[in-house]
């Protein structure tokens, strides 16, 4: 009998430029652990795969989520959580769903209507199996961006195919309401403009009104907030993505690579290429 030979090479996805974190995460909390109220910077789908969780938000005020149920919290909303038992949750963060059936999703969004009482949805078998697979990939640190893009599409395929339109209306209602808000407009467009004035004009606001509304919403001046978001986004892209320096420069609206390089030197003390080299050195350690 011939001995079977298996490959001993393991792909280290966490060392790949396309590795990504915090898109789909697996968390475990012990009984009594409290997660303080925080504003969602993205849309959150929270899947409870083990235990009992008490959540408190505008939509789910004092709601108990039981094992194999899930909820959606819209970007800009606040949610507080308390583990009533030892729990295990999978959190999927997104700005726009990676849908396959665009027509069905848009129909759900357009007809979404907030119910009198929000109730967590029960996981269907297909969704349960999907999440079990994701737990395995996450545990093995298989965190490839391209792979996760595919898995996000699969998740939305399951939601669109195994849940009724009425379920989807309820699920997406918070997103539907939020898409008409100033917060949504800012989060979707701040990377597309170079100045606060451009952002105000894009939204049809006078500059004075926009600055006032922005500060009331974000608790800091628009210019300072946009600059901070741009700095954080650029550093994250340089350190954690496979985007080229030219692609990052274009993504954040810089006219030229020298302009982008000067911005990085001013904000970070190093050029984009130097920051990239630092990442490579860290990977070698």
In the CATH hierarchy, the architecture of the largest domain is Sandwich
Say how many strands there are: 9
Radius of gyration: 21 Å
Q: Using the alpha-carbon principal axes, give the shape.
A: globular
Distance between the termini: 43 Å
Question: Which H/E pattern describes the elements?
Answer: EEEEEEEEHEHHHHHHHHHH
Strand order of the largest sheet: 1-8-3-6-9
- How many structural domains are formed by the residues? 2
What structural class should be given to the helix and strand makeup?
alpha+beta
Protein architecture, described:
The chain is globular and about 55 Å long. The longest helix is centred in the last third of the chain and has 19 residues, at 222-240. It folds into 2 domains: 24-177, Jelly Rolls (Sandwich); 182-283, Homeodomain-like (Arc Repressor Mutant, subunit A). It contains 11 helices and 9 strands. With 285 residues, the chain is an alpha+beta fold. Strand 4 and strand 5 (63-66) form a beta hairpin. Helix content is 47%, strand content 18%.
What layout of secondary structure does this protein have?
Layout: E1 24-29, E2 34-39, E3 43-50, E4 52-57, E5 63-66, E6 69-73, E7 78-83, E8 87-94, H1 102-110, E9 121-122, H2 125-139, H3 145-162, H4 165-178, H5 182-189, H6 196-202, H7 207-218, H8 222-240, H9 245-251, H10 257-268, H11 272-284
Antiparallel strand pairs: 1-8, 2-7, 3-6, 3-8, 4-5, 4-7, 6-9
Helix pairs in contact: 1-4, 2-3, 8-11
């Amino acid at each position: 009998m011939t001995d079977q030979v298996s490959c001993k090479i393991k792909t280290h996805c966490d060392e790949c430029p396309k590795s990504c974190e915090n898109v789909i995460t697996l968390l475990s909390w012990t009984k009594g652990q409290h997660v303080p109220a925080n504003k969602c910077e993205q849309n959150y789908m929270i899947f409870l795969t083990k235990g009992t969780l008490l959540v408190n938000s505008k939509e789910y005020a004092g709601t108990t989520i039981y094992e194999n149920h899930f909820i959606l919290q819209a970007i800009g909303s606040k949610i507080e959580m308390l583990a009533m038992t030892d729990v295990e949750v999978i959190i999927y963060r997104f700005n726009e769903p990676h849908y396959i059936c665009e027509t069905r999703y848009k129909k759900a969004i357009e007809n979404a209507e907030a119910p009198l009482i929000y109730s967590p949805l029960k996981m269907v078998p297909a969704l349960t199996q999907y999440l079990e697979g994701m737990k395995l990939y996450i545990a093995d640190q298989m965190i490839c961006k391209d792979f996760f893009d595919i898995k996000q599409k699969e998740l939305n395929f399951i939601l669109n195919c195994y849940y009724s339109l009425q379920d989807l209306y309820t699920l997406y209602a918070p997103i539907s309401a939020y898409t008409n808000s100033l917060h949504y407009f800012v989060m979707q467009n701040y990377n597309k403009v170079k100045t606060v004035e451009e952002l105000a004009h894009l939204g049809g606001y006078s500059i004075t009104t926009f600055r006032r509304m922005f500060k009331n919403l974000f608790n800091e001046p628009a210019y300072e907030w946009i600059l901070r978001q741009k700095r954080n986004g650029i550093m994250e892209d340089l350190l954690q993505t496979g985007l080229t320096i030219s692609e990052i420069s274009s993504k954040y609206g810089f006219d030229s690579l020298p302009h982008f390089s000067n911005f990085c030197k001013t904000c970070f003390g190093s050029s984009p290429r130097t920051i990239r080299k630092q990442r490579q050195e860290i990977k070698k350690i």
